[in-house]
Automatic annotation (TrEMBL):
Designated name of the protein: Arc/MetJ-type ribon-helix-helix transcriptional regulator
Pfam families in UniProt: RHH_8
Superkingdom of the organism of origin: Bacteria
Amino acid sequence: MTSASTRAPDRLKPPDSEKITINLGYVDLGQVDLLVMEGFYSNRTDFIRTAIRNHLATHTDVLRQVVARKMLVLGLQRFGVSDLEAARQAGHKLQIRVLGLAIIDSDVSADLATQTIDSITVLGALQASAAVRSALASRIR
């Protein structure tokens, strides 16, 4: 049996969503509330998520083409110390392009990140320490 102190650290599961804030006119908000009250949606968030997904579905072909053309990774892309060390040893600088969530692990130093990451383009969310964000600020697009 492995003791807790000798086990590899568990990676935290990244969140599956990002919180945003929107402003709606009173009439639009009232109409959303009426649909919720009538049981069409469980709450305002359910309505908004459904509306966004339905609208995105109307643009599926365009989204696929743009993702392919811009060479974006779709979904989650995580970078740890070992990934960046491997890039440094190979003499490569990474050009990170993600549609979704990009995570630079919290144990990645700002120095390692600046040595190995040439640019970051994220359509969605980027999770990285404040030090790494600051060090890469000019490379984040």
